[in-house]
Write a structure and sequence with these properties.
Blueprint lengths: L1 H22 L5 H25 L8 H9 L4
Helix pairs in contact: 1-2
Amino acid sequence: MLDEDLDRIRAHRNNIHRYRRLLRTRLSELERQFIERRLAEEQSKLVALAATTFPVAFPIPKNQVAASVAEGGQ
């Protein structure tokens, strides 16, 4: 499962790089709008996939752990 998610992340990143490269070329306004829309879609998909693949964990600062232990809590 993780390998599949990493492959999808890599594919989204590659697409984002490709769209950014295309935006540096001469394009009609319609082409530019299409690529900008696809770029935004790829970026949002990448963010969502990364958030589910690598959930954020916030460590408890050491001084809060020491204070909790001193108070008899966990």
